[in-house]
């Protein structure tokens, strides 16, 4: 699908930007003066007035943010807050020159120059003449009529002066005093449009779910009565409806109406698109032709009930998206737009908010085609445009974006950036009269029956949802460091899903805004704590929350943690699609066997697989999925189920073990050799030592800890300094050794909460640890811990949930398989964005193989529910990072902590406010577990290889 869509986009771009000779005289003709995107730029002359590379004429690539071309100075929009009252923003100007020619055939046409976006105040001159008033506002398409200023027989000179800071304080307040990077320059394309003298500059469509179709056709230059016809064409190219009207000379608008019988409707799940072809004719001659893509759909706010699309209540699974790429800032290309939409769809999202400005037109076209609901937002981060400035920009935004069916709401600014005098301006240009909302964080700013209050906790959200307004937080669960995003999301989403007055919500945010600093050796800068708050990195590196969101937002919900003892091959399924029946989806099961420790590869081997007949489960209904498994399904390690949407995209993949951990370890735990091996014991005043199969373990008689260890290679392994109880009290009272028929046993005794610690060494070298503790109360974590030098670690391989780490309130998005992560010291949201993080809490571990510079060692547990903590890390960074870690640095746990959220410098570690799953662990009673350790590599049956190990190796 990606390849086909990219091909379509490329063809569309070539058609749009192609040779004007191929375009008929009755159509709009386009010629680019700049390049089309950040990978196809044009070279213009440039003079920067301040900062780097200033004070002389040189060259620049257009479109671009000039900082990324090495000019001027960088600012983050909150620098005024960071540096205080004496701070001054960089205010350089950029002066552009470009020479171009126009076809002589354009002499009898209306020719406009169009700027898709320029930061910020933009003065345009053609051949020394002002094209029109200076444009103020960065993110909006604006144009000037150049027809009377162009040379058709010699080159034309375009001069553009762009002022980074606007002369209008309200524009700076709305756009540049903001929590994002602010740039200067012509950052979106510039091109010429040539129209016949009689033409339509603008179409505004209202196409409803009942098939009713209205369209306002703006008219220019009519000199006589003119027939206007609109043919509505479906995806197969068939005309399904026609509207006609007759305009008089000098008319500036005509409205056409018709009805299409049973149109295919547009939703995020069914993005059915139509095209309307408009023709203007007079006296038997074609005057002008144009076309527009649109969709039939109806949006309603039913006060006190919810948001409805085509008569069905919908809940938005959304996220906030900045227009962003680290090398080029806000200058993007079609592939980046497509990638972002596909990432959101991969997370099973159905909506996106344009934060905090309207996007490139191409992004909206892809939302139309692939299906995402869009909140299109007027800039205004904390402060609003003045009415004179904002009124022009509302008009420009709406006229550019009005016919995109993906846009469901206009958002009139953000968090205090609402100029309420502009609320009724949107409807002046939007024939469909979409609702206007206020995306805010201050009570009392609700609008049109929707409360969008930001960053409420779980319990305050409950109260709002129980009130009379529809609640749709346009920002929640701030995704800074590893917090927010999917942390706590399961509880939030279930609350919203089950609440009548919820319209869903929008997580903050998609992307870490890291910019490649051309003034600092091309490091990627996130401005400290300000910009790294995405669920993907600057180049779209996926955090653990990405996959957890995917599971939580899955429209196919299978709420089954493990297969029941008497599983009969039938699963309970909930259809959380709003419009799709599950019969339109397809399912596939696999029976797999996991790879073993010591094998070269990770993952599992598929032994059997089959497609499943999709059940007929209506939208928002529940039903059963019958897998039709073979009789021997329990003979395999795991059952894997994959669900695909009607477009054959993977929705989610679930994995369930078919048996116990003991079964999974049946070929790994070889406690006894065929020939019984001796176990040596030694004792001093302070130590007890066990040795078997060349593995030596020494225990300290004063504290019960492992204090010395050699693997079966004969070399030291620095594992030890434990066990320690990570929660509760344990006072060591002594060690005693005894011999059993199959091994040597050392028992440690304690006073307090640690009831049993029993070690047993087998002749094979396997070391067994049985422990029991009893805790009463609330604890962040529970279990035992040891220590190993982190800087000795090469990597880890394990059978369990992965490959990402988890938190108590973010257990989703990981599946059972054999995973391997190389060591890294990644801090989530920070360079170099290497994911998955090596360090953290990892869930449901059956076995774990540590690879170190001292050799390998293996840990396994026949008991389910084991968490392994790998080394020192944080979830939220701060003066005191959060949450606290257990003692030691290599822990085997039965309970792990929840994570909180962070916004800038402020950590909210009071996790219980995020919902029931974010409370501490409520422990009441005893916990028992068995662990097995093998220090070294097991024997191999392979042919000896032709080398000789050095007799002495002094490296370690």
Structural class by helix and strand composition? mainly beta
Biggest sheet strand line-up: 47-48-49-50-61-56-55-52-53
Helix content: 10-25%
Q: Specify the overall morphology.
A: elongated
In percent, how much strand structure appears in the residues?
Answer: 35-45%
The termini sit apart by: 53 Å
Q: What profile does the largest beta sheet have? A: 9 strands, antiparallel
Radius of gyration: 33 Å
Low-confidence stretches: 5-22
Number of helices: 11
Tally of extended strands?
A: 61
Arithmetic mean of pLDDT: 95
Give a verbal description of the structure.
The protein is mainly β and 956 residues long. 11% of the residues lie in helices and 37% in strands. The chain contains 11 helices and 61 strands. Strands 47-48-49-50-61-56-55-52-53 form a 9-stranded antiparallel beta sheet, with no helix packed on it. A hairpin with an 8-residue loop joins strand 2 and strand 3 (57-62). Helix 4 runs parallel beside helix 5 (361-370). The longest helix is centred in the N-terminal third of the chain and has 16 residues, at 2-17. The radius of gyration is 33 Å and the shape is elongated. The two termini are 53 Å apart. Mean pLDDT is 95; it is low at 5-22.
Write the SSE topology.
Blueprint: H1 2-17, E1 29-32, E2 42-48, E3 57-62, E4 75-76, H2 79-83, E5 93-100, E6 110-115, E7 118-119, E8 121-126, E9 129-130, E10 142-145, E11 156-163, H3 169-175, E12 181-182, E13 185-186, E14 190-195, E15 203-207, E16 212-218, E17 226-233, E18 239-247, E19 253-259, E20 274-282, E21 285-294, E22 299-302, E23 306-309, E24 312-314, E25 316-321, H4 334-346, E26 351-354, H5 361-370, E27 373-377, H6 387-401, E28 407-414, H7 426-429, E29 436-439, E30 450-451, H8 458-465, E31 470-471, H9 489-498, E32 504-507, E33 515-516, E34 524-525, H10 544-552, E35 556-557, E36 570-575, E37 586-594, E38 604-612, E39 622-626, E40 638-644, E41 650-657, H11 661-664, E42 679-683, E43 687-692, E44 695-700, E45 706-710, E46 720-725, E47 730-740, E48 743-752, E49 754-761, E50 767-779, E51 782-787, E52 793-802, E53 815-822, E54 840-842, E55 847-852, E56 855-860, E57 867-870, E58 890-895, E59 901-903, E60 906-908, E61 921-935
Parallel strand pairs: 25-26, 25-32, 26-27, 27-28, 28-29, 30-31
Antiparallel strand pairs: 1-14, 2-3, 2-5, 4-12, 5-11, 6-10, 6-14, 7-13, 8-9, 8-11, 15-16, 16-19, 17-18, 17-20, 20-21, 22-23, 23-24, 33-34, 35-36, 36-39, 37-38, 37-40, 40-41, 42-43, 43-44, 44-45, 46-51, 47-48, 48-49, 49-50, 50-61, 51-58, 52-53, 52-55, 54-57, 55-56, 56-61, 57-58, 59-60
Helix pairs in contact: 4-5, 8-9
């Amino acid at each position: 699908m990606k390849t086909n869509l990219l091909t379509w986009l490329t063809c569309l771009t070539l058609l749009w930007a192609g040779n004007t000779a191929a375009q008929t005289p009755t159509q709009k003709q386009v010629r680019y003066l700049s390049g089309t995107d950040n990978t196809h730029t044009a070279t213009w002359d440039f003079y920067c007035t301040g900062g780097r590379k200033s004070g002389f004429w040189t060259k620049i690539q257009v479109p671009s943010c000039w900082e990324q071309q090495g000019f001027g100075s960088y600012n983050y929009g909150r620098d005024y807050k960071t540096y205080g009252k004496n701070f001054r923003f960089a205010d350089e100007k950029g002066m552009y020159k470009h020479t171009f020619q126009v076809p002589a055939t354009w002499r009898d046409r209306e020719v406009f120059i169009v700027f898709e976006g320029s930061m910020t105040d933009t003065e345009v001159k053609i051949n020394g003449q002002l094209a029109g008033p200076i444009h103020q506002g960065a993110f909006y398409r604006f144009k000037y009529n150049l027809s009377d200023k162009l040379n058709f027989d010699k080159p034309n000179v375009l001069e553009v002066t762009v002022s980074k800071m606007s002369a209008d304080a309200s524009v700076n307040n709305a756009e540049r005093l903001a929590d994002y990077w602010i740039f200067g320059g012509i950052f979106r394309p510039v091109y010429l449009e040539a129209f016949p003298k009689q033409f339509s500059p603008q179409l505004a469509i209202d196409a409803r779910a009942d098939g009713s179709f209205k369209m306002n056709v703006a008219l220019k230059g009519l000199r006589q009565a003119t027939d206007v016809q609109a043919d509505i064409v479906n995806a197969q190219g068939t005309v399904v409806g026609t509207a006609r009207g007759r305009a008089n000379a000098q008319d500036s608008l005509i409205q056409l109406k018709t009805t299409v019988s049973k149109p295919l409707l547009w939703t995020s799940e069914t993005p059915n698109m139509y095209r309307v072809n408009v023709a203007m004719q007079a006296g038997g001659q074609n005057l002008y032709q144009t076309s527009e893509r649109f969709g039939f759909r109806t949006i309603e706010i039913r006060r006190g009930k919810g948001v409805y699309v085509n008569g069905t209540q919908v809940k938005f699974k959304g996220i906030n998206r900045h227009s962003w790429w680290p090398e080029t800032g806000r200058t993007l290309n079609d592939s980046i737009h497509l990638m972002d939409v596909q990432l959101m769809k991969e997370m099973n999202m159905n909506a996106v908010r344009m934060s905090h400005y309207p996007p490139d037109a191409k992004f909206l076209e892809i939302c139309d085609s692939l299906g995402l609901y869009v909140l299109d937002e007027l800039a205004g981060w904390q402060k609003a445009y003045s009415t004179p400035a904002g009124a022009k920009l509302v008009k420009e935004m709406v006229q550019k974006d009005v016919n995109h069916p993906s846009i469901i709401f206009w958002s009139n600014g953000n968090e205090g950036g609402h100029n309420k005098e502009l609320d009724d301006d949107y409807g002046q240009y939007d024939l469909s009269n979409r609702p206007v909302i206020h995306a805010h964080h201050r009570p009392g700013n609700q609008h049109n029956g929707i409360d969008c209050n930001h960053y409420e906790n779980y319990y305050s959200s409950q109260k709002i949802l129980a009130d009379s307004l529809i609640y749709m937080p346009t920002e929640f669960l701030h995704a800074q460091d590893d917090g927010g995003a999917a942390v706590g999301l399961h509880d939030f989403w279930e609350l919203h899903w089950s609440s009548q007055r919820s319209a869903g919500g929008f997580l903050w945010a998609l992307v870490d805004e890291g910019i490649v600093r051309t003034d600092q050796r091309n490091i990627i800068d996130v401005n400290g704590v300000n910009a790294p708050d995405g669920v993907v990195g600057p180049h779209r590196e996926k955090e653990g929350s990405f996959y957890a969101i995917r599971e939580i937002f899955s429209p196919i919900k299978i709420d089954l943690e493990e297969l029941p003892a008497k599983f009969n091959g039938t699963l309970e399924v909930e259809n959380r699609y709003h419009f799709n029946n599950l019969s339109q989806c397809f399912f596939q099961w696999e029976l797999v066997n996991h790879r073993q420790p010591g094998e070269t590869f990770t993952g599992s081997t598929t032994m059997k697989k089959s497609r499943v007949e999709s059940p007929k489960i209506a939208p928002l209904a529940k039903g059963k999925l019958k897998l039709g498994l073979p009789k021997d399904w329990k003979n395999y390690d795991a059952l894997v189920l994959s669900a695909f949407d009607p477009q054959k995209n993977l929705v989610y993949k679930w994995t369930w073990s078919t048996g116990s951990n003991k079964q999974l370890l049946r070929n790994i735990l070889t406690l006894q050799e065929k020939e019984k091996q001796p176990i040596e014991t030694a004792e001093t005043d302070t130590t007890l030592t066990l040795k078997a199969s060349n593995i030596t373990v020494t225990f300290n008689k004063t504290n019960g800890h492992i204090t010395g260890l050699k693997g079966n290679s004969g070399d030291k392994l620095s594992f030890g300094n434990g066990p320690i109880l990570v929660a509760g009290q344990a006072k060591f009272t002594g060690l005693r050794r005894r011999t059993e028929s199959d091994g040597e046993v050392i028992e440690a005794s304690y006073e307090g909460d640690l009831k049993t610690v029993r070690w047993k060494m087998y002749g094979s070298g396997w070391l067994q640890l049985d422990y029991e503790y009893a805790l009463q109360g609330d604890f962040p974590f529970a279990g035992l811990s040891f220590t190993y030098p982190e800087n000795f670690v090469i990597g880890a391989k394990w059978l369990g949930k992965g490959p990402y780490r988890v938190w108590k309130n973010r257990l989703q998005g990981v599946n059972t398989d054999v995973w391997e992560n190389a060591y890294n010291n990644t801090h989530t949201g920070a360079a170099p964005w290497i994911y998955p993080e090596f360090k953290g809490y990892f869930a449901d571990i059956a076995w774990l193989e540590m690879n170190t510079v001292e050799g390998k060692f293996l840990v396994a547990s026949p008991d389910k529910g084991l968490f392994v903590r790998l080394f020192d890390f944080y979830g939220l960074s701060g003066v005191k990072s959060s949450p606290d870690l257990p003692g030691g640095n290599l822990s085997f746990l039965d309970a792990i902590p929840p994570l909180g959220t962070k916004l800038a410098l402020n950590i909210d570690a009071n996790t219980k406010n995020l919902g029931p799953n974010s409370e501490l662990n409520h422990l009441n009673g005893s916990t028992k577990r068995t662990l097995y350790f093998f220090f070294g590599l097991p024997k191999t049956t392979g042919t000896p290889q032709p080398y000789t190990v050095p007799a002495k190796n002094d490296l370690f």
